[in-house]
Amino acid sequence: MKELDGKVALVTGSSQNIGREIALMLAERGASVVINTRSSVDAANTVADEVRALGVNSSVVQADISDSAQARHLVDTAAKEMGRLDFVILNAAIRRQKPIEELSDEDWREVLGVALDGAFFVSRAAVPHLRKAGGGRFVFLGGTPSHLGTTGRAHVCAAKMGAVGLMRTLATELGPDNITSNTVAPGHIDTVRGAAAGARSVGGSGRPAESGRPIQRRGIPREIASAVAYACSPDAAYMTGQTIHVNGGMYYG
Questions:
Q1: Which helix (H) or strand (E) holds 163?
Q2: Which of 64, 119, 165, 201 has its Cα between 20 and 30 A from that of 76?
Q3: 164, part of any domain
């Protein structure tokens, strides 16, 4: 018997990269997984097929979580289709890069709309379902660069750090209901990036930024998924309100 047998996870923004790996790793441990995407439906269906191939149930729910009604529809549909909801992984985000003086109101609102408003809308809708299940886990995907302050990422850093405050409040309010809330904060991870995300970071010497870290490489999505899976595991039942940094030593939290 696997440690997450019978459990159900919802992973927002899980059609590729870290979200996909989280979905697969939770499935490997026995959880059924609801895949969410805003627009990449074909890719999301592929991930759902990969999850099913691991012997558990999976479905795809298309929703833009920056819209409150769509976020609630996502959560309620996930719980209805799967019969319960135990884990909510708040992974969806938009990565953009611009100097602060070039950020428009629309740029700001787009990023915060998904990474902060969306996290709130989804978690608010999920609380009754986790209570009904007798407890559960919220896991937020943060970002180590947000703790450092990263050039060109005022909106991203603000959204991610705002979500840390939300995570801690959920931990405090929901602990008596056997619901934990934690953040996994990736460092520089080798993922597929859109053009708007900007160039990958480099150090002052022109070498890749990771060359100055104790572990001199970029992380891979599966290493982040492992931390998320731990936060969902029975072994993590006493851990709440924490930020787990997985970054090769770029920041010591």
A1: helix 154-174
A2: 165
A3: yes
Interatomic CA distance for residues 219 and 236, integer angstroms: 23
Residues with Cβ within 8 Å of residue 186, at least 6 apart in sequence: 18, 141, 142, 143, 144, 219, 224, 246, 247
Instruction: State pLDDT tens for residues 22-48.
Output: 999 999 999 999 999 999 999 999 999
Supply the pLDDT for residue 192: 77
**What's the CA gap between 32 and 85, in Å, rounded?**
10
> pLDDT, tens digit, for every residue of 166-182?
999 999 999 999 999 99
For residue 1, being part of any structural domain is answered with no
CATH number at residue 112: 3.40.50.720
Closest CA to 2 of 229, 212, 242, 237: 229
Closest CA to 189 of 244, 156, 242, 144: 144
Range of the domain at 113: 8-246
Q: What is the CA radius of gyration of the chain?
A: 17
Whether residue 3 is contained in a domain is answered as no
